Every structure is written in structure tokens, then in C-alpha cells.
Amino acid sequence: MSRSKPRTINSNPAKKFISLSGKTGKFNYWDKEKSESFYLDYPFAFLPLDVLSTIKGFSQKEMSGIYANEVHNLGKEILTVKIFGKGQIAEGLYGKIKDSVKNQGGKFCRSVYAMMYFDKQPELVNFQFVGASLSAWIEFENNHSIYDGAVQITGVKPAKKGATEYFIPELTLQKASREDEAIAVDFDKQLQKYLDEYKSEQIAEKTEKLHYEKPCVDEVDVIDVIPF
Q: Distance (Å, rounded) from C-alpha 199 to C-alpha 116?
């Protein structure tokens, strides 16, 4: 940071943050301007740009949402988990803090940035896969080259575990046009610029906080199995 170049980063370039509703079995997003939720009709498709991990959830004790920064590498990048309005509740590699976070209501989340069409216009959006939708996404991600085409969600199938009923999204990979691929690449360049600035800001903040003390972080902490 300097006088002529203050430490600021651009806002998240995603225009919509989309997740699966457990009540309706449909993916939805919140429109801030209209103060209303909108649901996506099946089938719909998107081109993945980048996949990160974070924490989402709700604290029953504090009656407030749980959130964290986004990371690419769970074994090397620090997660800082917070409750809205209440401050930090955990910090560290996911493998070290996951039990504590889970006990407080936090859930592992795949944050998938993507290009998607709305009213025939391409937009940069973010899908947040948590719970049952996370399981389906992880399985799909492990068995497909997600950047080699467009991911289509054709619908959901109902499932039940004990008294809990939920929905599992059904995903397929389809071919994308050259035009769509080019648009997706342009969006990804915008996204990567934001992520570079976002992570640089996080590193700078932690460096100031540590006051040059060596951080207590393992050199290597590889997580082979996707954590829940």
C-alpha cells in the first residue's frame, strides 16, 4: 500500500450467487435490487471457470451466518472462518479446524465460478455447492474434465436419510461452442485478476497481524479425500 496506490481490491465479479434450495429442489439466487429470490428452470448449463473451497453455514447459538475466505488449496492455504457480526471463530488449514467449524454450524462448500446465460446474455456467476449438492458436484468433478465443455444440470432426484428429505442434482457434461468457450475465457481473465488481488490482500493482512512471527502452519498437509 502507498499514498498513490491504496490497498483496495475490486468487488467480486460474480453477478449472481446460486445454490440449491432444500425445500424446493431448485437452484436459486437472491436479487439484491429486487429483494427477491429467483429460481432456475431445469435444464440449465454453465461453463466452469474456476473452483475454490470455503465455509458456509449458520450458527444457531449466535443466530447468524457463517462464512470464510475462498481458497484453491486446502492443504496449504489458511481459512479464516467468521460469524456475521460476531467476528472470527476459527483459523487454520481445513484439516485442523474442520471439527471445530462443524460443531459451530459451518459446512464445507465448493465455490464454483462459471459463465452462464440469462436472457441470452452471458454473465459471470458463482455456484455454492453445499451438503447434498456438494456430494453430487464432488463426484462429478472427480469423474469429468469440467473445463472441457459445459456442465448441464438436468434436474434433481429426491432422497431421504432418516427423517431428512433432500435433493441430489443430476449433472452431465456437454460440448460447448467455440463462441461460448471464448466468452468463458474472457470472463476467467477478469476472475483471475480479482482472485490475485483478493489473495494478495489476505496475505498482506496476515503478515501485518503476525508482526513477522513465523506462522504455525504445516509445510505440507495434503488432503486426499474431499472433506465434509
A: 25
